[in-house]
Amino acid sequence: MTPPLGATEEVAMSLRINHNLAAVNSHRNLVTNDARLSKTLEHLSSGQKINRGADGPAALVISEQMRGQVAGLTQAIMNSETAVSMVQTTEAALNEMSSLMISMRQLAIHAANEGANDQTMLEADQAELANALNTMDRIARTSQFGRKPLLDGSNGINGITSGEQLAFLGATNKTMPSPASGYQVTIDQEATQARTQGTVALTQNMIDLGETFVIREGGKTVELTTQIGETTEKVQNRINDALRGDGLKLDAYFDEMGMLNLIHKDYGSKANFSVTSSTAGVLSGMSNVPTQVQNGLDVAGRIGGEVCTGDGQVLTGGYGTIVDGLQVRFTGVVDPQNPEVGRVSLESKALTFQVGGNHNQTVSVLLPNLKSDQIAVRVDNESGFNSLRDLDIRSFQGAQDALLLLDEAIDQVTKTRGELGAVQKNTLETNINSLRIAKESMISAESVIRDTDMAEEMSDFTKNQIMTQSATAMLAQANQTPNNVLTLLK
Q1: Backbone phi, then psi, for 363, in 5-degree steps?
Q2: Taking a C-beta distance cutoff of 8 angstroms, is the pair 302, 186 a contact?
Q3: CB–CB of 295/271 below 8 Å?
Q4: Residue 376 domain flag
Q5: E-only strand ranges, 190-339
Q6: CATH of the domain at 108
Q7: How many domains does the chain have?
Q8: pLDDT by residue (tens digit) across 344-361?
Q9: Which of 183, 326, 360, 461 is the most exposed place for a label (fewest CB within 10 A)?
């Protein structure tokens, strides 16, 4: 065939024997194809497309960070599950304590049935009560999760106050431990009670004519009319008996001038009442017209220089401050020239759980000291009981006051159970669910970066295998090309 005009014919034939370029080229392609085949085999055998930094430096860094997160999330899930087990163990102990206190309350009600009880029955009630208290102490002392005690006070906040009228009530897991010197407590306004005083003395003539008093407090009403021949002392006793009988938190008394005074038992702005008297000035300003008594004042002050809120005599650290949730009670009168009334020192030993895969993702839980001498303290009662350990129900008044302390103790245990239940339900269990979802998403993202797509890799393997076989065959052919030189020697 004649080539087109202007075209030249090239004959590509190697007749050199020192350098077989065709073989070199075939060898280079064979090495390249063999390397690709080896990588494909590595990807298929390991299931990962990134086995070393050279496979994808940036992808390796991201993948390793994700693997660290997955490992952290896995451990955080196990930590949260362990925390749930600890909470459930604690609540089981609290449930037994609650049952014991309900039984003790029943004993106190039985002991208060003074008309039917003899001394033997009262002694039996007291003996059973003492046994229940000892059982409570045993539960508080021996309840453990592994070797960690739960209810002996070693997992709570211990507070100590200096100052005669200052008392530590409690704190939360948001309250920061105090410095060695404690938090300074300053009071700007002490709490006061709602009270009223008549401006006209109650005379014997008024009593004989039948002075009528109407006292209302918290939706409850007491109406009382004096009787002929009663003394002011008798009127005072009748008023107080009526107030107690109908559940009004008020006390009545006559001062030296014969003026009738009424004072609310509770401190603060929430306590109020109204009074009416049939004679103007004895209680109400106008005859038979109710007079609303001005509310008391809540305590106002600061703890550690931080903003606080007052409720009656209780001062509570403000939200978001270092004393958040810290509560103290001030029962004295403040000196305007020296507002510092004492200091409060705190040591926090809250249980802290690592429930996240990263730094400072923790949850803290406080467990109170539930020994009988540390529960239902600071409850006002006529018998002078300082805690459950002091209960003595062998008298009518002792049984009545025991009910006050037992109700407070049941409330404290129930509150603790509620807080633990909220931590388990709203914090730990929801955290476990969210961690599992986060772990699943993280594994999926890491898999996209690092894992081999087996279908795609098999296609590459087939291609690279064919290319390697082809390159091997061509190298064999190229190695035969120098043999053509031998024909020149013939």
Answers
A1: -135, 135
A2: yes
A3: yes
A4: yes
A5: 193-197, 212-217, 220-225, 250-254, 260-267, 274-277, 291-292, 300-303, 306-311, 314-317, 327-330
A6: 1.20.1330.10
A7: 2
A8: 998 888 888 999 989 989
A9: 360
